[in-house]
Amino acid sequence: RKGSVMITGASSGLGLATAKALAETGKWHVIMACRDFLKAERAAKSAGIAKDNYTVMHLDLASLDSVRQFVDNFRRSGRPLDVLVCNAAVYLPTAKEPTFTADGFELSVGTNHLGHFLLSRLMMEDLKQSDYPSKRLIIVGSITGNTNTLAGNVPPKAYLGDMRGLVGGLNGLNSSAMVDGGEFDGAKAYKDSKVCNMLTMQEFHRRYHEETGITFASLYPGCIATTGLFREHIPLFRILFPPFQKYITKGFVSEEESGKRLAQVVSDPTLTKSGVYWSWNKDSANFENQLSQEASDVEKARKVWELSEKLVGLA
Ligand code: NDP
Questions:
Q1: Which of 139, 234, 284, 307 suits a disulfide with 86, CB 3.0-4.6 Å?
Q2: Which atom of ligand 1 is nearest to the CA of 35?
Q3: Which residues 6+ apart lie within 8 Å of 169 measured at CB?
Q4: Is 190 labeled as catalytic in the residue annotation?
Q5: What ipTM, to 2 d.p.?
């Protein structure tokens, strides 16, 4: 049978390019888990994805109810789940004030981390039941969360600190909206959410890899300077960022190329190693990258896991 892969945020950018790359092989059925049903349908159509190679299902990661509803709907569809890709994200670099999810969590960490945390925890049951030979759970990371790289050192840097904001629920009322308890900073909140993503992947690996054989992986797909991720940025930034990445940092990758990279992490038979953070060199060859100290801190990973469990109602 075809493999069944679920991709969150497949209505644009990396998620859409990955859906297209996988669908085109004829070996995958893609479940596009998206907050805007019509946009996702249109995106699939204009990307030329054949009708019987995808299904759009509604998922709003900024609402825990929506996540639970989505899981119920998916189970009722009777489809197996072989690979889950947590790809969706919001980035609010110019926001002056925090905004919040339906459950009152700061929007970037609430969507990018907590929504995906609940989704992937619930979906573990489905992954376990699949009889597919190579089952995987992939969480898209980012270099911006790695303070051991040049790009990861552009301020404001990711920093989770003692996580007092996460303990308090990131609600901006009786706790800070930021994980480390500091002043709100939209760019930092995004980077923090990506560190949480990478820590979560490693904690999954430690808790479940041996028992289930599932491959847990994260990746940095390259700088895809043209995606909607930068839609909230100031206009001048949006004009200058793609050529800057292309000619100065040379970190630029097209959406198509980044989609091929993520598709490789989904399906390549040689990429089954678990607990790994994949990156690509200038010749587009994959290699196992090092995570920053904070993004590979075992204690922090456990703490993020336990605090997140409480916030999403699993503990
Ligand atoms: P896009 O903005 O193009 O894609 C993000 C997707 O997430 C969109 O489909 C968006 O939906 C979806 N999304 C946002 N909020 C929600 C929500 N509440 N519920 C469900 N879906 C939601 O950005 P990219 O393709 O660039 O980003 C994809 C991933 O790649 C992210 O994890 C990002 O951190 C990562 N990344 C990107 C890099 C880059 O340079 N662009 C570099 C490194 C990592 P909608 O279409 O409805 O807006």
A1: 139
A2: 20
A3: 104, 105, 175, 311
A4: yes
A5: 0.99
